[in-house]
From TrEMBL:
Keyword Cytoplasm belongs to the record: yes
Lineage per the UniProt record: Bacteria, Pseudomonadati, Pseudomonadota, Betaproteobacteria, Burkholderiales
Pfam family, one: Chor_lyase
Gene Ontology cellular component list: cytosol
Highest taxon in the source lineage: Bacteria
Main subcellular location: cytoplasm
Protein name in the entry: Probable chorismate pyruvate-lyase
Amino acid sequence: MTFPFDVSGRRWQAVPAPALSRHHKDWLTRGGALTCHLSALGRVSVRVVAERVMPADADQCRAIGVPLRTPLWARDVILLIDDEPVVVAHSVTPLAYSRSVWQAMRRLRTRPLADLLYHDPAVTRSVLVSRPLGPRHLLHGRARHDARDPLVGTHPRARLWARRSVFLRYGAPLLVTEAFLPRFWRRLASTPRDNVNA
């Protein structure tokens, strides 16, 4: 089946940059639930940062096929391993779908989004695409101010490697973007290889 949305947009790539490490390429392209993969590294928890209505920007419009400034329902969370923030994530769907097809998204509280996505045969997923995020991206700000990653705080122009994909349920798109914090890659480097490859 041809996927109806262009998740790549202008800057996102289906194939990670060749210069990236093997670990970067692996985590930016791993299918399945990210929270499940993270659980091999420790106890995973979810901290909800914000749930709100926001207007779609040009990049989101291309990714989920809506007009500019369409009202979206957005959920921003931090994923933690053993209480240490390692990933910041941003999920959006058109506001109307958050009241119908994706209404369960509003009731997740601190449960991971994966609880909705990987147990429903009606849900399909686009290819994963990745790119480095600069300081003007919303998730970069979350890394600085909400996750308080020390490297991002000290070097505010540091790039964050992120991945995203679109989930589709009965024609309704849900765009999920996940950015790995510098402390995630540091933690990965000190983790036994068997756990890293789980």
